[in-house]
Amino acid sequence: MGPILDATPEVRASKNVAPSASPAEVAAGVKSLLARVTDGTDTDDTARDRLLRILDRIEATLTRRTDFPSAAAIVRSLLAIRIPAPRTEGTAPWSSAAGHLYLSDLRHGSAAGRPFTFIVGLDSTHFPGSAIEDPLLLDRERVRLGQDELSLARDRAADARFNLAQLVARLRGTVTMSYARWDPAEARALSPAPELLQALRLAKADATLNFEHLDHHLRVTESRLPRPEVRVDLDAGDLWLRALATSDGRLRNGVEAVGLAHPRLGRGLRAAAALEGDVASVHTGIIGQRDPPLSYHDLRGRILSASRLEALGACPRRFLFANVLRVAPPDDPEFDPHRWLDALQRGSLLHEVYEQTLRQAGERGIEPGDDAFLVLALQLADDEVARKTRQIPSPSPVVRQIETAGLREDVHSFVEMIRRAPPRWTALEMDFGMDDIGVEIPAGEGAPVLARGRIDRVDDHGSHLRVVDYKTGTDYGHGGKSGVYRGGRRLQNALYAAAAAAVQGKPVDCMEYHFPTRRGENRVRRYAVSDLRHGGALVAMMLEGAAAGWFPATDDTDDCRFCDFQALCGVKPVEWGKPPCRLADWTARNL
Ligand code: SF4
Questions:
Q1: Is 200 left (phi over 0), alpha (psi -120 to 50) or beta?
Q2: What's the farthest any 2 CA atoms get from each other in the chain?
Q3: Is ligand 1 within 6 A of the CB of residue 563?
Q4: What spacing in Å lies between the alpha carbon of 563 and ligand 1's midpoint?
Q5: Complex-level ipTM
Q6: Does ligand 1 come within 6 angstroms of the Cβ of 584?
């Protein structure tokens, strides 16, 4: 309020001094207020624009001082303008355009000058309005603020009646008055306002008429349902409602009728309804037990990779689509004029360069601190880029050059990271469980789970090993709040640590995620093996859920952002933030 009050001239008189102000000063105060009004509709913006133009003129020209009420009255009279349609120039037209419906209030109802006027809302609940105080601005506050200019609760009914009488007196042509007979929000019948009866008395020139006469005069209650005798349908709504109306004017259950006539639509409608409720069903991913029931022990023939298990942890529904039903998005690459390699292709290229750099440097006796180490890494990157260029056409040489420069920057980051702590690696891109047997990961008291995968790097630290996995994105999602397993979305740490120990026959002290790219800022996220001891049991529990037919959606729509099955779940991609997903909402609400 401070800046507005500063810009507003003094209103109250100080002792023995009459308040004085010029219209220019009052205009400055109003401008200050308008500048703080938030943007509204196009019409609001047009109104503000017009008012500001007038205020500018007042401020520049009407500088002679007078008493404050007179100055305010001058400004008010100059601001009483009609607002034209948005983006039109010149003054607002006096006559209304044909083919439009004009909505107005009682005060301005006749301004459009139309031959037909409909006065709606004349039920006794809404007209002349409640005599209860406005809870937002109580009467005593209105008295203090408005100095008799703000209407009080007791005055509002009288004002509304006066405005209606004035409106009817002004109107020409045909006037139709109506009231709603039913309040659907409260499921109760409404009665007409006395003004409707008064209108009938005046129209019939009979002061003895009562509400029974009014009821008889009104005859049939109109509703959205077309009357059988009216044969013209104005729009698709009329067409549908006529088809759904019974001969005695009641509405059939259209949704049910359409669902029965079109079974697939019916199934879709039931699925949509299931998501609104809180009962678990096949529509919400609880597809039920097999007969006889399965256990995860029965799934031991299917050895899952760490990334698939992470997919199960992130969204069992996605796992169902991709790995049980084996649904795959069409292999139909879309041309993107601004991108050559997608995230997966870029990541695999960098993984190849990182592996070969360490491997070939080791074979040739090149130390990480040597200049030749960086030269080798960049040469390998260039070779990989050349190979990818032959495999994947780039949209333009410029795009390829930009992406190649980015890849070389990432290789620089990797070299910096290696130089900071040269690893004594003992295995690179180490496969485990790729045979039909898999590697057994202890799962607490239950049977071990079988897994397979590929570990980027295993370092030898003498008495123990350390497992490293490269990530070519940022470390988003690895913060402290996400926990060790991030709700089952992060399992490589536990599985890789256990697998490396089993394959290499040596204890592992921790597993590290490395982010050796510019975006990843060479960060390291470390998980001590003592914190990973429940990973196998967690995987066993997840597999037990899958065996029992539990495939609910994720509970976090962040998982839906880059999901191949968005269309199946009705998820619309968004540019920023998390996309809305009804299935994920159901899970978050109920599980
Ligand atoms: S869109 Fe969301 S809910 Fe649907 S499968 Fe993908 S991650 Fe799961």
A1: alpha
A2: 115
A3: yes
A4: 6
A5: 0.99
A6: yes
Reading the block at residue 328, the tokens are 């795959």
Cβ(114)–Cβ(104) below 8 Å: no
CA distance 240 to 238: 6
CB of 543 closer than 8 Å to CB of 446: no
Q: What letter would DSSP give residue 188? A: E
Q: Which secondary-structure segment (H or E) carries 272?
A: helix 263-276
Helices 397-420 and 343-364 pack at an angle, to 10 degrees, of 50
What is the secondary structure of 449-479 as a DSSP string?
EEEEEEEEEEEE-SSSEEEEEE-SS--TT-S
Atom 5 of ligand 1: nearest residue by CA position: 318
State which ligand 1 atom lies nearest to the alpha carbon of 553.
Answer: 3
Q: What span, in angstroms and rounded, lies between the C-alpha atoms of 164 and 274?
A: 49
pLDDT of 18 strictly over 70 = no
pLDDT at 152: 86
Q: Which residues contact 136 (CB under 8 A, 6 or more apart)?
A: none
**Ligand 1 pocket check for 315: Cβ under 6 Å:** yes
Which H or E run includes 443? strand 439-443
CA–centroid distance, 293 to ligand 1, in Å, is 26
Instruction: Determine contact, residues 43/86, Cβ cutoff 8 Å.
Output: yes
Of 89 and 578, the one with more pLDDT: 578
CATH architecture of 343-543: Alpha-Beta Complex (3.90)
Write down the residue that tokens 């490293």 correspond to.
Answer: 468
Residue 16 has a pLDDT of 64
Cα–Cα distance for residue pair 557/578, rounded to 1 Å: 6
State residue 14's pLDDT score. Answer: 62
E-strand ranges in 233-328 read 304-305
**pLDDT single digits (tens) 101-143:** 888 888 888 877 788 999 999 999 999 988 788 888 898 888 8
Token pair 């190649």 is found at: 404
Partner residues linked to 469 by β-bridges: 513
Distance (Å, rounded) from C-alpha 214 to C-alpha 192?
A: 9
| DSSP 8-state secondary structure symbol assigned to residue 147 | T
Are 583 and 553 in contact by the 8 Å Cβ rule? The answer is yes
Query: How far apart are the C-alpha atoms of 127 and 194, rounded to whole Å?
Result: 9
C-beta of residue 408 within 8 angstroms of C-beta of residue 350:
no
Q: What is the pLDDT of residues 368-400, one digit of tens each?
A: 999 999 999 999 999 999 999 999 999 999 999
Distance 283 CA to ligand 1 centre (A): 13
Name the residue ranges covered by the structural domains of the chain: 2-79, 116-218, 343-543, 558-591
Query: Which run of H or of E encompasses 220?
Result: none
Taking alpha carbons only, the member of 511, 412, 525, 526 closest to residue 474 is 525
State the Cα–Cα distance between residues 443 and 532, nearest whole angstrom: 11
pLDDT digits (tens, 9 = 90+) for 473-509: 999 889 878 899 999 999 999 999 999 999 999 999 9
Identify the top-confidence range among 68-72, 148-152, 182-186, 206-210. 206-210
Alpha-carbon distance of 93 to 591, in angstroms, equals 60
* Interval between CA 456 and ligand 1 midpoint (Å): 28
**Packing angle of the helix pair 582-590, 263-276 (nearest 10 deg):** 40
Decide if 453 contacts 305 (C-beta within 8 A): yes
- Verify whether ligand 1 is closer than 6 Å to residue 24 (CB atom): no
